[in-house]
Automatic annotation (TrEMBL):
Annotated Aminoacyl-transfer RNA synthetases class-II family profile domain residues: 220-481
Organism classification: Eukaryota, Viridiplantae, Streptophyta, Embryophyta, Tracheophyta
Protein's UniProt name: phenylalanine--tRNA ligase
SUPFAM superfamilies associated with the record: Class II aaRS and biotin synthetases (SSF55681)
Subunit structure: Tetramer of two alpha and two beta subunits.
Matching InterPro entries: aa-tRNA-synth_II (IPR006195), aa-tRNA-synth_II/BPL/LPL (IPR045864), Phe-tRNA-synth_IIc_asu (IPR004529), Phenylalanyl-tRNA_Synthase (IPR002319), PheRS_DBD1 (IPR040724), PheRS_DBD3 (IPR040725)
UniProt keyword annotation of Oxidoreductase present: no
Length: 488
C-alpha cells in the first residue's frame, strides 16, 4: 500500500517533501512509510533525505490533565461558588497531588482566597492549561511562553521526530521489479537467466550468529570438581586407558577372584586381546601370596590364586584401578606424601535404567601419608564436599574388599528434604599397601563418587539417559547455564 502510494506519487510529482505529512494525508502509519522508503532507497528506486523535527509531547501527568482538567481548575470547582470550605475538607475531596498543585496554582492566579477557610475570588475560570495540552496533543504549535510554562511544570517534553523527504532515485520505476535472488537449474534450462535481473549482494548484511562451543553439563561439573581438587593441592592421575587387566583392576586391590563383581554379568571382559601381555612378575608373586595365605598380619583368603584370571583384560570397572597403578609406582620410590585425584570413565555390565548406565564417570581422591587416621578421612571429606555446597554429611559403615574401615557418604539434600548417598570411601587395607612396598606406617585414605550423580542434582535431571548417551537433547546442552554455584 505505502509502496504503491510513494512510487505512484513520485511518477507525477518531483518529490515528497515530508514523509510525516504524506503519511498523515493518506492515513498511513508513518512507521510503515519509513520502512518502505528505506527498502526503496536500498534498491535506489528513491533518494531520501533525513528530516528531523523537534516536537512537544505530553508527559503522563500532562495526559492526565488533558482529560481530567488542570489541578487548579479541579480545585477551583471543588470550592463552593458562595461561602467557603475548610481547608482540610477540601483536601479530602481531591487527590493529594491535585490538591497540592491546585492550591499553589489557583492561589497564584488569585482565583481563591487561601487560609483555614477557602473561598472563591472570581466567579468563573478558564482551563487554559488543559486547552494548551490538548493543542499540543493534536500537534498544533503554541506560543513560546506557554511552552515554557508547560515545560517548567513537566507536563510536556521535547521529542525528536524523524522522517524523510523523498525524490526519484537512479533506478526509479513506477512499480518495483521482482529481482531474482538465486540462479536455478530451471533458469538455465529455460534460458531465461539472460533476462533476469539479479539482486545485488549485500556485503553489509549481518550473518547468522555463529553457534557452537556449548559445554555438556558433565564437562562443566567436571571442571568445577577438578578446580576443587587443585585448590586442595591434589595432582591429577593419568586415566587414559579404558582397557585394564584384572590384575590392576581387582587382584592388586585384594579383591578375591571369586568375587561376584568379577563375573561377566558385572564386568565387560575383552575378547580381543583377551589377556594382558605383561605384568610385574615379582609383584604378581606377592599379590598371589597375600590372596592365598595372607601375611602382614592377615590370614588371606585361603584359595588357589590363578594367574589366568589376573591376566584377563576388561574395561575398567572403577578408577581405583588407576589409583592402584599410581600407588604401586609411588611405593617404589623413597616415600613422599601425595594427594592424587582422577575423573574419568568406567564401565559396568549393568541393566540400563533411569539411574544406571553401562558407562559413567568416577571421581576419585586419595591421600597417602604416614599415620593417617579415619578422622583425617572424615576431615578431608568435609573439606571436599563443603566446597561443592554440601556441608551436612553423614557416614555409614560399609564394605569394600580393598578398604577397612569403609564408609558410605551421605549428604542432606535441602531440595529433596532427605539424605542422599553421594559416595564411598575408606582406608586402603595393609593387604593392598604392604605388598606394594610402602613403609608400615603409611596409610592411604580414599573416596570415590560418580560425576553423574551431582550433575543430575545440580541440573535437576532425574533420568540419566537425558544427561548422557545418544538420546540427549542438544537443546539442553545449549540452554543450560555456563556455571552454577552450590550443589543443593
Ligand atoms: N572404587 C569404589 C567404587 O567403585 C569407590 C572407592 C574409592 C571406595 C576409593 C573407597 C576408596 O565405588
Amino acid at each position: 500500500m505505502a509502496e504503491e502510494a510513494i512510487l505512484g506519487f513520485l511518477e507525477k510529482n518531483e518529490q515528497i517533501s515530508d514523509s510525516g505529512n504524506f503519511a498523515a494525508e493518506l492515513g498511513l502509519d508513518h512507521n510503515d512509510v519509513v520502512n518502505v522508503i528505506k527498502s526503496l532507497h536500498g534498491f535506489r528506486y528513491v533518494d531520501a533525505q533525513d528530516i528531523k523535527r523537534e516536537t512537544w509531547v505530553l508527559t503522563d501527568e500532562g495526559r492526565k490533565y488533558a482529560t481530567e482538567g488542570s489541578p487548579e481548575v479541579q480545585l477551583f470547582l471543588a470550592v463552593p461558588p458562595e461561602g467557603s470550605i475548610p481547608k482540610d475538607e477540601l483536601q479530602k475531596k481531591l487527590a493529594p497531588a491535585v490538591f497540592k498543585i491546585g492550591c499553589s496554582q489557583a492561589g497564584k492566579n488569585r482565583w481563591v482566597e487561601m487560609g483555614k477557610q477557602i473561598s472563591r475570588k472570581v466567579q468563573q475560570v478558564e482551563d487554559k492549561v488543559k486547552d494548551l495540552l490538548l493543542r499540543v496533543e493534536d500537534g498544533h504549535a503554541i506560543e513560546k511562553d506557554d511552552i515554557n510554562s508547560l515545560k517548567a511544570r513537566k507536563l510536556i517534553v521535547q521529542q525528536t521526530w524523524k522522517g524523510y523527504s523523498v525524490s526519484k532515485g537512479p533506478n526509479y520505476a513506477p512499480k518495483r521489479k521482482k529481482v531474482a535472488t538465486d540462479l536455478t537449474r530451471e533458469n538455465l534450462q529455460r534460458g531465461d537467466w539472460k533476462e533476469l535481473e539479479f539482486k545485488e549482494y549485500n556485503f553489509n548484511a549481518k550473518g547468522q550468529p555463529a553457534e557452537g562451543g556449548h559445554l555438556h553439563p558433565l564437562l562443566k561439573v567436571r571442571k568445577q570438581l577438578k578446580d576443587i581438587f587443585l585448590q586442595m593441592g591434589f595432582e591429577e592421575m593419568p586415566t587414559n586407558n579404558f582397557v585394564e587387566s584384572s590384575f590392576w583392576n581387582f587382584d592388586v586391590l585384594f579383591q578375591p577372584q571369586q568375587h561376584p563383581a568379577r563375573d561377566s554379568h558385572d564386568t565387560f571382559f575383552l575378547e580381543e586381546p583377551s589377556t594382558t601381555r605383561k605384568l610385574p612378575e615379582a609383584y604378581v608373586e606377592l599379590v598371589k601370596r597375600v590372596h592365598e595365605s595372607g601375611g602382614y598380619g592377615s590370614r588371606g583368603y585361603g584359595y588357589d590364586w590363578k594367574r589366568e584370571e589376573a591376566n584377563k583384560n576388561l574395561l575398567r570397572t572403577h578408577t581405583t584401578a588407576v589409583s592402584s597403578r599410581m600407588l604401586k609406582a609411588l611405593a617404589e620410590k623413597p616415600f613422599a606424601p601425595k594427594k592424587y585425584f582422577s575423573i574419568d570413565r568406567v564401565f559396568r555390565n549393568e541393566a540400563v535404567d533411569r539411574t544406571h548406565l553401562a558407562e559413567f564417570h568416577q571421581i576419585e581422591g586419595l591421600v597417602c601419608d604416614r599415620g593417617l587416621t579415619l578422622g583425617d578421612l572424615i576431615g578431608v571429606l568435609h573439606d571436599f564436599f563443603s566446597r561443592l555446597g554440601m556441608s551436612k554429611l553423614r557416614f555409614k559403615p560399609a564394605y569394600n574388599p580393598y578398604t577397612e574401615p569403609s564408609m558410605e557418604i551421605f549428604s542432606y539434600h535441602e531440595g529433596l528434604g532427605k539424605w542422599v548417598e553421594i559416595g564411598n570411601s575408606g582406608m586402603f587395607r595393609p593387604e593392598m599397601l604392604l605388598p606394594m612396598g610402602f613403609p608400615e606406617d603409611v596409610r592411604v585414605i580414599a573416596w570415590g563418587l560418580s560425576l553423574e550423580r551431582p550433575t543430575m542434582i545440580l541440573y535437576g535431571i532425574d533420568n540419566i539417559r537425558d544427561l548422557f548417551g545418544h538420546k540427549v537433547d542438544l537443546g539442553l546442552i545449549k540452554r543450560n547455564p555456563i556455571c552454577s554455584l552450590g550443589m543443593d
